[in-house]
Specification:
With 66 residues, this protein is of the alpha+beta class. The chain has helices at residues 14-23, 37-45; strands at 27-29, 49-53, 58-62. A three-stranded antiparallel β-sheet has the order 1-3-2. The longest helix has 10 residues, at 14-23. The termini are far apart.
Length: 66
Amino acid sequence: MPRKSTHPTPTDKSSLCLQYLNRCGGSARLCHINFSLSVIQTLVNQRKVKISNTGAGFFIELEDAK
């Protein structure tokens, strides 16, 4: 029988998305990331990331990566 974990696991992948953006230098093309729209929307609502249109496509950027 599997044992229950004592460590809490987040239900969403927002922390993984933030880690990915940190490793990418603070921004990434929106079409190249594999996170769901709800994860991205959660991060935008929390004002941790922003979406910008550069004319060459949409980018997701960390808010504090200026």
